[in-house]
């Protein structure tokens, strides 16, 4: 993690699970960002109490509302971040917000597919578009031409459940809409890497592993990874990403995941 040196970072879905873990470990780095923006749907709600507790301890943590399916909410968050940064750019955008529902091939519905695709795929697209000017500004203000997460990067939280080759943990749950949304997110990441490379912005998709979160756990199945293990691994990976890694799909240990 020593190689990750960012002035500012924004994490969506930051009130619980992996998002909260990323925020916590960014704040605890030896050289933490000057600004960590933790965005979630309801930052004053009951499900954001841990985040609020962190904010009372770390003055560099800024909590803000951001609903990734609402363009007005996204634009308002981007404007607020821009004001807070006072002319400097945003180095690291982590599109972490996502939802999943247990579903089956024969019973998946239009409503479920639409809701999950809107959150998991369209959300990261709209958020990235809104914060693009700030990411460009960060890239322009960084010395050198090499891409890195310390310069400017969009990291999309994907899953090997969306890998067409691996179809991770199929026996655990078919989760049709979730898998399709993550496969589409992987394509979005590839497109972003091609479109934003000229602006100095690195783009990559990360599989955090099967993690012990509300979304990943059930009474019958306890995933092998804790949030801390996954997040520490992913931040280590982010510290090593360079030009050759833009447009790739990697796991929490830095291994390439098949599309």
For the structure shown, list the relevant keywords.
259 residues; alpha/beta; seven-stranded parallel β-sheet; 6 helices; 7 strands; 39% helix; 13% strand; globular
Description:
By secondary structure, the chain is α/β, with parallel strands linked by helices. The chain is 39% helix and 13% strand. It has helices at residues 17-27, 49-57, 71-85, 110-140, 176-196, 227-240, and strands spanning 8-12, 35-40, 61-65, 92-95, 153-157, 202-207, 249-251. A seven-stranded parallel beta sheet has the order 3-2-1-4-5-6-7, with helices on both faces. Strand 2, helix 2 and strand 3 (61-65) form a beta-alpha-beta unit. The longest helix has 31 residues, at 110-140. The two termini are 26 Å apart. The relative contact order is 0.15.
User: Helix share of residues?
Assistant: 25-40%
- Enumerate the strands of the largest sheet in spatial order, edge to edge or round the barrel: 3-2-1-4-5-6-7
What's the rounded overall pLDDT mean? 94
Total of helices: 6
The unreliable regions are: none
Write the H/E string, N to C.
Answer: EHEHEHEHEHEHE
Whole-number radius of gyration? 17 Å
